[in-house]
Amino acid sequence: MATEKQLIDVLDKIQADVTGFIAASLVDLDSGMTLAVKTLRPDFDLTAASAYNSELVKQKLKIMKTLGLTGTIEDMLISLSDQIHIVKLLNPGTFLYLAVDKKQSNLAIVRTAVLRHLQNVN
Amino acid sequence: MATIDDTRGTLVIRIVYDGPALSGKTTSLGALARGVNSTVECPDHTDGRTLFFDWVEYVGGLFEGRQIRCQIVSVPGQIELGRRRKMLLEAADAIVLVLDTREHEWQFGLGWLKDVLPFARAKTPPVGVVLQANKRDAPDAVPKEELRQALLPMGPVPLVESSAASGDGIREAFVLAVRVALDRVRALAAAGQLEVGRPAEETPDALLARMHEMETDQDFGEPRVMRVVEEMLGVEAEPWHRAGTVAVSASGDAVEERPFIPDPMMPGGMIWPPVDGRALLHDVASLEIRPARTSRADWLGAGSGFRFHSFGGALYADPHVARNELIEWARLHAANSQYLSAGRAVILADAGAGRLRLWQLVRTDAALREPLSLALGLADPAAVAQDLMSVATELAAAREAFRASSVALPCTLWSVGQHRRSLGPTFVGLMPGPASKLAPEPEGRPLIERELSPHLRELRRSRVDYNEVVEHVQALAEYARYDTPARWLSDVVLAT
Asked: Helices marked H in B65-102 — which ranges?
């Protein structure tokens, strides 16, 4: 597993590449605990957001199991009126959570940056 | 200690940071507190030395919809304050053992670990211990391989390297400890022992008052609590310790593998699926399944409704390679989940000398071999013919269904499960693995012949009414279309 410094470095790179970056975290799916965090808005409760997004992923996995879907989750996109939230699974136990200002960015930029920088993280 | 606080919708757990004096416990808590925007509270500190405990509170993560409230407490490391330390350890849901791994301190720390492990493992359910190998940035830090070698005889101990001064590894060790604590919470809940209500000590002041009370209340505090703790700390080596001893050759260069023992407290990220897989490990941990080498150099263990298997070559010296392999297996399982029986896990287990071995754990489900055995013993030849036809049909259906899977799932009487309505054919055998090179599976009549011929020969030898069975099979196939399981079975029966 990458060290916390390496994980924060990845978040730094994503921040540098994504205009409108609000916050990002790498999250342990099992517990919902953050492994690394980066935020530009002190009022954005990244800890709570990470925890509840871990439930979101777990619920989606349950839904897939119930429906007999055989694929795996690659990412989950939540489009708010003013923000884009993306959840990208790194491996079965860890995911990236990223919140971006919708006016300053778009989904293509976000996905490209995330894919590029997560390639070397396990 | 773990308590469900329903009034606040939280789960309260306590993570205790243990370790010798000046090993970096308080510094670790400081780094952790900074990382999670919290503060360290230190009642009765003297010259930077902890007299009672340091306290950090952190609310983060979720457990079954409840927020996790972590009481993170460090013990006083000074020997003369050992009783206070033990009081704190008593209430731990997970222990992070912070050890100074510089050359001149490591052996002392190792003794500390040998003291803590039996105590933690004797608890019911056991309290997980995470070893935070600290001061890794020091020039005279003991090499990691040497640390691992020293840990070999102690069974699985998750190790996280850290430098408390710089903050490296602190959060990783903490998150791992939370995972371990949540496993204990699940075990407590399963046993109906999880406390519900307001936690006994909600604040550092309440904990301090409690400790003062226990120190002065001789009737309650000293004799009862301390006796129990001392007894636990005096526990001799557990069975795993004797069984897990690693043999080293005279030259010291060939280290045998550590025997695999299911450990539900193994670190996160080593089990797939993360939650259900660990729950499965909980189920099998109490069973006496001890895998042994097969003639093909694989490892196999079975019994009590479970099977463990590992391919001979599934031993990895590089943890990153091992983890990639685990992920590959996880993907394979996920992609083929519609064909696979439930109750499966893939595990990366410590194989000694810093190596990891990839295991699959499979709950044993009924295979077609079982109804076939019952059928062959039936008195009525028509019923025997009917059941033979069912088995042949299910084998053929499985072959057809498994063709769409991304891995070559063998169709045998041992690997195809009994049909369950609406679920379709199920593979109940051991997964062949992503890199397995299997011979192409026969289909149609050759498949029926391969699987049923030996049983039909036995049937012919043992039954005086075998001809009647044959006639019934032919009658069942009479109106069946060409190229169907009924026809294939009829042909095989006639040729046998």
From this structure: 82-90
Verify whether the Cβ–Cβ distance B331 to A72 is below 8 Å: yes
Give the bridge partners for B410, in sequence order.
none
CB contact (8 A) between residue A51 and residue B61: yes
User: Any residues with CB less than 8 A from the CB of B373 and at least 6 apart, and which?
Assistant: none
CA distance A114 to A108: 10
Q: What pLDDT, in 10s, does the model give residues B144-153?
A: 989 988 888 8
Cα nearest neighbour of A33 on chain B: B61
Which residues of B fall within a CB distance of 8 Å from A54? 61-62
Establish if B461 touches chain A: CB-CB under 8 angstroms.
no
**% of chain B beyond a pLDDT of 70:** 87
**If we measure between CA atoms, which residue out of B81, B324, B58 comes closest to residue B171?**
B58
DSSP B46: B
Flag whether residue A43 sits within 8 Å of chain B, measured between CB atoms.
no
| Span B314-343, average pLDDT | 86
**Taking CB atoms and an 8 Å limit, are B68 and A31 in contact across chains?**
yes
Alpha-carbon gap, residue B178 to A47, rounded angstroms: 15
Q: Does A29 touch chain B (CB under 8 A)?
A: yes
Percentage of chain B modeled with pLDDT above 90: 22
Kindly give, in sequence order, each residue whose CB lies less than 8 Å from that of residue A118, ignoring residues fewer than 6 positions away.
A10, A88, A90, A96
Distance CA A112, CA B496 (A): 63
Q: How confident is the model at residue B49 (pLDDT cuts 50, 70, 90)?
A: low
Report the phi/psi class of residue B49: left, alpha or beta, with left for phi > 0 and alpha for psi in -120 to 50.
beta
Q: Which range, A85-94, B49-58, B296-305, is most confident? A: A85-94
Is the Cβ of B321 closer than 8 Å to some Cβ of chain A?
A: no
CA B181 to CA A31: how far, in whole Å?
Answer: 10
Window A:51-70, CB contacts with B under 8 Å: 51-52, 54-55, 58, 65, 68, 70
Closest by alpha carbon to B102, among B172, B20, B23, B19? B23
DSSP structure class, residue B24: S
Do the beta carbons of residue B97 and residue B16 sit within 8 Å?
no
CA dist B236 and B242 (Å) reads: 11
Distance CA B110, CA B116 (A): 10
pLDDT at B364: 82
Q: What is the pLDDT of residues B218-243, one digit of tens each?
A: 433 333 333 333 333 332 222 222 23
Our separate counts of H helices and E strands in chain B read 15, 15
Interface check for A15 against chain B (CB to CB < 8 A): the answer is: no
Residues of A in contact with B331 (CB under 8 A): 72
Judge if ipTM > 0.90: no
H helices, E strands: number in chain A: 3, 5
Pairing of strands B292-293, B299-303: antiparallel
Mean pLDDT score of chain B = 81
